[in-house]
């Protein structure tokens, strides 16, 4: 077979993808085989990358939004010389390999974002493109186009059907993100069969309605030049993102090509054999890469390396002329915050007035937003409620709108929580930006799919989640979170904060901002909260501490957020009944759990019973408290004080349950703190 | 002011909405005031309804998707004579009123679905329209157009921005739902100000791309005839849903009309005064309805009542000619299942082979699908994985596609989990259908916003949530749920099932199908599970029971789903170390919690320590077990047995922790079962 090296490279991708999935006896060969041509064209002719430094700032970003096709990207990473070996391809989908069943950014060099859950990757890509535009507008100078990379995305029908991508892509059109180029694998196949069963909309027309450029390549199986021409045209349009509809044959080369049989199951042995034969490979061998393909790819990679070298030279000159900007850029990439930033966090004393914690959060943002230039804020159309806009902030907007510019640091996400979450993941993944965004706590749930990936992919993303309980009052049960904190507390590597006052809110921001690899949700009240007696930032950054100590206490009241102050008020109520109560604030379980056992036992000691108080689901509170007072039902619409009263979250209501707790545990000798466990958890 | 009664009716709505929000000192007057004209036209000229019987099957359905505008619908319900009094309007947004801050279907007569969380209502409406088309295709006969109602929706910009509505509306276009008519309140205002800051897409073009008819009315403030003409045109097109872009002035009549100041805050006293003056109302009085407006509305209502009477006559004739269909229809509306249906639930004995619970679920569907004709299935493009398609089922599809017809009972949702969840809520709300749908458990989280509303609005909706744990194996951490069960266990009025074998799976379906007012999530395994010794449907419908009893046991192992069998295998392992273990299966916490305390204590007795075993977050297990073995981290990609081994979910790994548990609790006298609590929870 006298195929050109280009065609051979394409077929090598196909064969390796078939080998990897067959060897694992698991995975999705169809999309990699169908998308091999476009992947080859993109990586060999357009993508700017240096496999030896996958973190080079000005690299083009590649996102495989149809993450189930990961055999494709693993194969590419291997061919072009990233630290992904043939051995790694053989360990595809095996425990502890760097080639898991879907691409995970923190596992594999060259993977930008964690994808697989459909619709996320394309939405992350919008974030990557925003970050690029913003970083360019912030750091580029005349003669110094330091940052001008493209963001390329492959996506399938599934990604287009998911609402999260609709949200993100509508915003991308509004924002005129010209450096974002999406390539839609239009193979007409989904798991349920033909896309005709459920997906007959005119996708390109929809993207036009969003303000995207739309292009078509009708023979994605063979027309490498058409593919190249389309990508070039996409690059040329600077004020619109582009989507290229690329018609391909799923599982190209398989006997079952074009059917959904090749979507999610490896090819059979005889099918792989004929595939290899047809492509000029030895049918008896697996995981073979022709040397000329390696040579070809190495050459491309070497060009990439020299492009990085040129860029490094440019950066060195930049460092001379723009020292301050240079140092800022280097610092940001390390993930370090500016020296001394934490001195700007507000601190409070008990004599300060009661303030809603959403307002405390605004105070913090007003203080630190100018000190931490990599902060990029936003809200899902609740700016005035979330109080997420620091004073004097310019909007991130296309300059042509007259509403801001790309150096602006506040994103108007619209009512698009899920898109916002996925975009924040992309913003964080870019490497020069720390995103935070606001919505009501209840609607963080709309973004659950994205929050989960923040946690899994270990990105620093902050949710300013206001209106955090029945305390929001009149909006009622549709807006009052009950299950939300339990949900995200159960999510690994996600910090959930519910600060009780000013110092705790500052502590929440401190830990959220200094945790480079963990997202945070900061739950904030609509109603005013008093400043507590023993609250300091130093105490609160431990995740839990004693707000009120009492010699010979009969009970520990453990609480968070707006209920801590009510628990403090309950002390007097209990004193009337000769019960001595101590009060603990536990604003962040995850952080508290990371403290030494000695410390935790000093906060939640043996010998006395404890009662948790939080106006939402009690689920999980059994981990810290012997008894739990919460709300295992939906809330109610009304002025918040009436709602609190209805559910007895008052000093009297809490005291009643505290008395019951003391009585119930009276007969138990040597009461054990729940901190004591028989064995360590898997974390 | 010589206004016609029509104009007076419009202005009465505006004034009452202003009064209600001002009186509550909370709420959203702007949209009700802007949409008063279209609401008046719709209710007086088009809507078919009888306020005296809000449950009349063939009524037109009205959905206020922009639920924050609920002062509008409460006002309409009052004016037309539903059981909503002026007093109720005065108690708007007060605790325990029937006029809460957002419309709740189970609270207020005339409210079809619970809205407020944006994007949900329009998506529910798609479900209502599907149910209408399906019920018509199933029950209508020549000369008997029993079911031919329309579904009308009001929605705002926020609803259009939410991805859930994109998903549902794309599907609605595909399904050619001609009886669905949406009216978009195009007032250019969102909370963040002008929609220009984030929402500049061409909405109508987008809806055209979905296959909708799109219409425009440019003066929604005054052009009542134009509004009527548009609705008429919408009714005439039978094979497309319609969206009408209606340009209105938010807060029409207020001094601040057209600004976002009137969106979410009541009008000031002087503004209301001038409003009333301008509209010919006494500025010193509140909550006043001119008698001629009542008269006008009463006349409309009376016409509605007589239409129902005509329909009842038609139904009586139908009952004679189509006795069986008639009885089926009546039964369905009561929510009762066909007599004896439960006899079709499969039962198993321990000698039956090990079967994956997703397959057990398929077996059930194959048995009961023909017995319970109101079941409507579906999947978010994972039919072959979820095994949700009962044998021989016809697709619900527009006949013109040649892929099915409207009497079909299987919906191809596409990769649209959130849309699917919201559509199921609409299907259930219609009253003649019980929806179930499949996706991976992990992706039920994408639909969290809709699941929450299933629970709050008390609808019977079933999620067939397969691939329920790390047991799905190779797909890896992006697909392996960790936090999901904790999330939905914490959600009130939502049953989470994780059956361990065949009888437990039948029990899960039994309880899910007979719980008329509670949604269920049934978590099902990909891997095979053995049939357990003591498992029966009767035991499992209690939510928890003893799988293996042991005299003088040293420990209780408590588990769910795929881990119960491993716990049974652990008995032998522990016996080697002279530890006697009993095993409890707890497939549904919510149902177990509803059993008598005596029963619960018989399952989880005092005196011995207990250990929970479940391959996901331990959060909440402290409620039942003294110690917890789970996975408070993300999973791993690999063959499932390897993954279980990696995390030590093997008889050896469990035994190790059981020994630690026994040792740790050895010194504690009179160990108390966690079932014992100091006081009752608020549920
Ligand atoms: Ca967490
Ligand atoms: Ca629940």
Automatic annotation (TrEMBL), chains A, B:
EC class (word): transferase
Catalytically driven reaction(s): D-sedoheptulose 7-phosphate + D-glyceraldehyde 3-phosphate = aldehydo-D-ribose 5-phosphate + D-xylulose 5-phosphate
Note on how the cofactor is bound: Binds 1 Mg(2+) ion per subunit. Can also utilize other divalent metal cations, such as Ca(2+), Mn(2+) and Co(2+).
Protein name as catalogued: Transketolase
GO molecular function annotation: metal ion binding; transketolase activity
UniProt KW keywords: Calcium, Magnesium, Metal-binding, Thiamine pyrophosphate, Transferase
Entry binding sites for substrate: 28, 263, 358, 385, 467, 475, 479, 526
Residues annotated to bind Mg(2+): 157, 187, 189
Gene Ontology terms describing biological process: pentose-phosphate shunt
Originating organism: Rhypophila decipiens
Residues reported in the UniProt entry to bind thiamine diphosphate: 68, 116-118, 158, 187, 263, 443
EC number: 2.2.1.1
Active site residues according to the UniProt entry: 417
